[in-house]
Amino acid sequence: MPIDVPTLRKAFPTLARELDGQRLVYLDSAASSQTPVAVLDAMDHYYRWSRSNVHRGVYTLAEEATDLYETARTDLARFVDADPRGVVFTKNATEACNLMAYAWVRRNLGPGDVLLTTVMEHHANLVPFQYAAGDLGFEVRHVPITSDGLLDMDAAANLVADGRVRFVAVAHVSNVLGTINDVRGIAQLARAAREDAVVHVDGTQAVPQLPVSFRELGVDAYALTGHKMLGPTGIGALVVRPELLETMQPFLAGGEMIRDVTLDSVTWNEIPHRFEAGTPMIAEAAGLSAAIRFLEELGMDAVRAHEEQLTGRLLEALTSIDGVTVHGPTDLTVRGGAVSFEVAGVHPHDVGAMLSSKGVCVRVGHHCTKPLMRCLGVNATARASAYLYNDTDDLPPLVEGIEAARAFFAR
Amino acid sequence: MPIDVPTLRKAFPTLARELDGQRLVYLDSAASSQTPVAVLDAMDHYYRWSRSNVHRGVYTLAEEATDLYETARTDLARFVDADPRGVVFTKNATEACNLMAYAWVRRNLGPGDVLLTTVMEHHANLVPFQYAAGDLGFEVRHVPITSDGLLDMDAAANLVADGRVRFVAVAHVSNVLGTINDVRGIAQLARAAREDAVVHVDGTQAVPQLPVSFRELGVDAYALTGHKMLGPTGIGALVVRPELLETMQPFLAGGEMIRDVTLDSVTWNEIPHRFEAGTPMIAEAAGLSAAIRFLEELGMDAVRAHEEQLTGRLLEALTSIDGVTVHGPTDLTVRGGAVSFEVAGVHPHDVGAMLSSKGVCVRVGHHCTKPLMRCLGVNATARASAYLYNDTDDLPPLVEGIEAARAFFAR
Amino acid sequence: MSMEDLYQEIILDHYRKPQHRAPVLEGESVHVHHSNPLCGDEMDLRVRVVDGQVDGIVFDGEGCSISQASASAMTVAVAGRELDDALALTEDFRRMMHGDEPSRPDDLQDGIAFQGVARFPVRVKCALLGWMALRDAIETYERGASAHTVEHDDDRPPSG
Amino acid sequence: MSMEDLYQEIILDHYRKPQHRAPVLEGESVHVHHSNPLCGDEMDLRVRVVDGQVDGIVFDGEGCSISQASASAMTVAVAGRELDDALALTEDFRRMMHGDEPSRPDDLQDGIAFQGVARFPVRVKCALLGWMALRDAIETYERGASAHTVEHDDDRPPSG
Ligand SMILES: Cc1ncc(COP(=O)(O)O)c(C=O)c1O
Ligand SMILES: Cc1ncc(COP(=O)(O)O)c(C=O)c1O
Fold first, then answer.
1. Complex ipTM
2. In the predicted structure, residue A184 carries a pLDDT above the cut 60
3. Which of residues 274-303 of B touch A (CB under 8 A)?
4. Residue B120: nearest ligand to its CA?
């Protein structure tokens, strides 16, 4: 069923806000999505009714809290088609990538080994590995992009050809170009060159927008974040093949991830608990469950169809403005909802400020992708990103704002 | 002003719950405290009014969100009397201890060095350092406890005497024995033996109960958690002397903690941002601010006075029951609110279940302090912990429940 | 929870008057020691196998009422059974603890009284301690060994 | 926000007709290059010092309207001043950007128009870029050096 945006918008309180008497036009969902009331209610219910800590509590509240938390794990596993034993909750996608860097990369890679990543990665999926490379002396290679913003698969094939690539870190969907990468293809390339290559995917921008099947992608690990998929802040996850997770070293140590400790030895707990230390994000997990159920009710196919169509209209609207250049693929079938653009003669800060004065929220800056900015030959871009609660009504204010910025600032 | 418990309780929705027609008696605040409506409102306000990501957003919502987040930092700094530039937000206290382990201990300690900790630590303040010791080959020493549950300061003096102790990890308040440790004294001992010793304190149980001045304690780092101090789940902090924080290596890498990245180099951001990677816990920070203001309005002296008095009554009530033994100090001036006890002939699980059947919530188990359990010669204990919303009305149900457990189970 | 939800009369009977509780077993074929570091439960289980059957079985241990009573009920339910049959019954009990309907309620005998424990996840491992020790004892015996020590805090599906 | 809150007419004037904007300065004493990797602003600042005074000053750069306009207003406000006085004025501007009332509003000249920027934390660093370059240029000159390159994304209190 197609998404009925006007009805849907009622579920998102912030969208009803006015700014200086103007309708709020939120086009920054690639940075963080709005949160529906159902998610807030789920968290509230925990705080008002079952407030307590999880695990090993023998009383009713603690049992309820544990149940909420563990249900979130199975909900998320179902949503991305993975095994719940491989679902590790983190505070955000960045921690999920770091978990992979500490618990696998730093324990396995050294001089002579190669880690493959791409020039379009978000810093979260790049710097943890660069940092490890600096400490441990392995090599990092980067897949370049083609002029239409796709990963250069021929180059990728060359980069893995010597069989030294043991780990691949790649985004499923770019937060700047919008590109939907063929991660299945990359995994096959990498494994063809070296059977035991571990493939880690940054799915942060994919999970909110696309139907994702971890099993079908055939990758080893997959990072995501709650606050971009209608969920609360403060929760993310790393989804790992359980067989791989079993072999990974612990990362954060402390309560809950331990089976036994003496003064000089420690026995770790089972997966996935071995990777979750300390009191978890209980309310946030309850909120994430509600967000998943909200998305499931709409259906991810419908979400994707809506996004694809609206992004098409957004691209048309932007390219029709004089002096505006858009980055990234024009083929909508390999494109997510983030659209980065430049306005000739106007600094992105000034574009953003003018849009803000018209109630339109877009992000400006390097979007935590400095290497990609260098590839594109820019310092920063403005980025509009639509989501399921946006529709074509949101495009005219964007266009007017950009035109006003041109008129006001361009010298 | 003394705390008016009946009025105060109205702010805590879960406390109004009934369980099988019985009043809920919540005595598990050392595991997680209840959350007042003001905290829920603060989070709700963010989600319903300013929902967006922080940092570098040029539009109104993003400015408001950034303001909420950075205000939480100054609120927390004021609350524990520290410099906001040394306040790093984490997801919980466990991550805060791991941050110290990764960003300082693992970068500085090696064979020949010694790390001093105590037998009463929570796993969060023990295992990250044990784990590092296993990887790096430094020695770990443990301060033992006296028969009345205090740290053995003479033994501590001996343990630091050879000048090899470079790092100290010690709890401010024990979550099992309730002991308030003389961390200032320990820091002086350690520094007398070795000027540059770094002293890291686990303040998780102290911050909710005591007025804490980081500056007066004269320690280097201090970990705490939000969910035990009326705040939400999913947020904690490490407070560090800025001069030390400046010298620490990054831990989690990713967005926001970076100044610049090229394909093969990275420049880190300023403190404290260098230690906060990825989208932070925005709603949680807003909630923590509200929790701090709630505590400040009551006054931490009043909170402490209430706790000291009530804990005295709790100890009296427990020791008056036949077959009940209490662990930890009897001197109330060196005691926080956690009271661990044993019931002769009844397994803690069964004590907990009987209490639960009477609506009384206590924690049973090893409380993530296995080494301490071994010292005490037990496998597990039951633990009752009162907080500012408890009063003497909550003691009779506890006593009756324990007596019923004795009658029902003791063989 | 109410006490009756968890502590059925049958359970309490086994707790108060455990069956086959003893520190030694004459002619013992296999002995396993299991402990659950999370709650401190300890269990010694000894089995005498004759002609592929559980000819004798005793347990000894320390732990909460649920773990002790469940071990007692287990010994009664499996005494005299073929080893394979005892393993199959163990699996039936394990699944029951995870919320499935038991397929052999009669054979579980008093073990059926523990069905309600499934609703108390924290206690599931208590109820399973004796049964998991039995499974390990049989597997140890079939491997040709006579003793085994295991630390665990949870059950897993059968290894085979 | 409304455009008027941030973009005062004086600011726009400086943006559209920048003062002292030039790529070279005859007899230059010191040249600093500052960049802000976060938003891509770049600033070249050249100062000619004669008798301990700012005898000549030009800037050149790329960046948003606020950073360009603020640099322009800065050059006007400090031209002819003693170096120490220029540093003191810089500190006054820096504090104003952090919400303090400026103590020398008249001396800041058009710089005062940027007071409202303090309410837009993201833009504070834009407004400070030129001033921080000036501070660095003077400090570099006083160290006896003639050029300095700095990457920064924030201002800090003066180093001395
Ligand atoms: C003394 C002590 N330290 C550390 C922790 C860990 O806190 P968290 O679970 O919030 O990480 C706790 C709480 O369980 C504690 O009581
Ligand atoms: C592609 C991509 N990866 C990773 C991240 C990091 O997510 P988080 O900030 O939730 O850790 C983001 C979001 O900023 C992103 O867009």
1. 0.93
2. yes
3. 277-284
4. 1
